[in-house]
Amino acid sequence: MAKIMLEGQTFELPDPLVSDDEILKRTLTPYYPDVANATIARKQQDGCLEITVTKRPGSKGNQAVLDALEQAPRQVNAAVEVFFQVRDLGIEDILAQMERINAAIKEGEQDMRSVTSALEQLGHAPATMGRLVPIGF
After folding, report:
1. Predicted TM-score of the model (pTM)
2. Of 1, 14, 32, 47, which sees the most CB atoms within 10 A?
3. What is the DSSP letter of 29?
């Protein structure tokens, strides 16, 4: 058995689970996700292996979601975009562009329906059980 020191807690794990840093990380990560990037220090103390796991600072939140949002195409609602293009025009110029304005309104309304639908689906999505129990519960 090895003594593990992590986040101010001390507990023991059997030797097969601590024989290698990667095995130890795979063992602990479901309970302590930040361990995946942690540093591990081992030392023998009074005939017992003591392992100190020190988490490295990392980003908060779900990085995969943040990355997907960052790489998503950026677009402005077509109706809003056309509004900014024609807002300072005279009535004759606006009337000359009515076909384009109506098409933008139609496209903008479709965008709004898509966003509203996505928000409704998220609001009605069932709760799912987390994979981890928060520390302290």
Report:
1. 0.43
2. 32
3. T
